[in-house]
Design a protein that fits this description.
Layout (H helix, E strand, L loop, with lengths): L3 H15 L11 E4 L5 E2 L3 E4 L7 E5 L3 E4 L1 E4 L9 E5 L4 E4 L2 E4 L7 E5 L3 E4 L1 E4 L9 E5 L4 E4 L2 E4 L7 E5 L3 E4 L2 E4 L6 E5 L4 E4 L3 E3 L6 E10 L2 E3 L4 E8 L2 E3 L4 E10 L3 E2 L5 E6 L11 E9 L8 E5 L6 E12 L7 E4 L2 E8 L3 E6 L2
Parallel strand pairs: 1-4, 2-5, 3-6, 4-7, 5-8, 6-9, 7-10, 8-11, 9-12, 10-13, 11-14, 12-15, 13-16, 14-17, 15-18, 16-19, 17-20, 18-21, 19-22, 20-22, 21-23, 22-24, 23-25, 24-26, 25-27, 26-28, 26-29, 27-29, 28-30, 29-31
Antiparallel strand pairs: 31-34, 32-33, 33-34
Length: 352
């Protein structure tokens, strides 16, 4: 995968040879692109070079085609918005698509069957480029990134949200971070992020991959201080020391789950009746590598209905390794004990 510096060199060379079309939308400008006025740039297309509060709407089969694309380029270019809406509407970027290069609060909405595609994409590249976001929502809406998708490379609070059947594809690799508080949210059972090159979550503390019923296809590495949380389906997961696994309801791992002796595990416990419904549960459709975790790795939060009984925390195909020596502790004022049942289940037994 080419580095961003390599892509910048390619962009500059192509712009010099072909001549760049620079849409220098400054303050409070609105432009609508539909099937009757497509934009084709042989170089860079920038929406908000150094101005604020500009809106670009690509709709009704409209198309923007450029070698590079910027939404909010310079440090002063804040709060610019691009809306790509409707079947046939497209922004196609040949190399790098940059949302908030040095600026903050820039947004891209891809909805109602629209598409955006690029070779690489960056949300909040430099330090100080904060709170930039891409939202992909609705059946048929896609964001296709052939190589790297970088959410919050340098800035803080940059995010990707996939909702209501939206789809994102990233090729050679994706990162949520290393900028602090970087976030990806997958909302709804039909929303999918296909990450064929995998996803690395974190670098600086506070980055998060949040599942609200969707699917992430691809391996996930959760780094120290960062979190995988929620319910839905993910690919194989590895958690480093001080990384956090926080299932809410049922989280399915479609592959292996590798824990570390320093991994932090957060579970909510209601009634022990049904795993994944009344309390947190992780189903691993592969090998669960325990990494020596013990009672002290867990944080248990009790909810209505909590009481004595057996809580099935993990179910898996096979288990590798053992629990640590300390398997007993207090949960909600009651005695709790972790144990291995058979060869594929980790349970918490709560007594009176």
């Amino acid at each position: 995968m080419k580095s961003r510096i390599q892509w910048m060199g390619i962009m500059a060379a192509m712009a010099l040879v072909a001549g760049a079309l620079l849409a220098r939308a400054e303050d409070n400008t609105t432009n609508i692109v539909n099937s009757g006025n497509e934009i084709n740039s042989s170089g860079e297309y920038t929406w908000g070079a150094n101005g604020c509060n500009n809106v670009l709407i690509i709709t009704n089969g409209g198309m923007v085609s450029s070698v590079t694309g910027y939404i909010g380029k310079d440090a002063s270019a804040n709060n610019n918005t691009v809306i790509i809406s409707g079947t046939g509407s497209l922004w196609s970027v040949g190399t790098g698509f940059d949302i908030g290069d040095r600026s903050s609060g820039n947004k891209v909405y891809i909805n109602n069957g629209a598409r955006a595609r690029s070779t690489a994409a960056y949300l909040g590249y430099y330090g100080g480029a904060n709170d930039n976001a891409v939202h992909v929502s609705g059946a048929g809406s896609t964001f296709n990134v052939g190589e790297g998708l970088f959410i919050g490379n340098g800035g803080s609070g940059n995010s990707l949200t996939i909702s209501d059947g939206g789809n994102v594809y990233s090729g050679e690799g994706a990162t949520i971070g290393p900028g602090p508080k970087s976030l990806a949210i997958i909302n709804g059972t039909s929303s999918v992020w296909t990450a064929s090159g995998g996803i690395a979550v974190g670098g600086e503390p506070g980055s998060c991959l949040k599942m609200n019923g969707g699917t992430v296809s691809g391996s996930i590495l959760v780094k120290s201080g960062s979190t995988l949380t929620g319910s839905g389906t993910v690919g194989s997961v590895t958690l480093e020391k001080d990384a956090i696994l926080d299932p809410v309801g049922k989280l399915t791992v479609n592959g292996a789950l590798t824990l570390n002796a320093g991994t932090k595990l957060t579970f909510e416990l209601g009634s022990p009746k049904t795993a994944g419904k009344y309390y947190s549960h992780v189903e691993v459709q592969g090998t669960l590598d325990l990494g020596g975790v013990e009672f002290g790795n867990f944080t248990f939060t009790t909810r209505d209905g909590f009481g004595p009984g057996t809580y099935q925390l993990f179910a898996c195909s096979t288990i590798n390794g053992k629990l640590g020596a300390m398997a007993i502790g207090i949960v909600g004022g009651k005695k709790g004990k972790l144990s291995l049942v058979g060869e594929n289940t980790i349970v918490l037994n709560v007594s009176r």
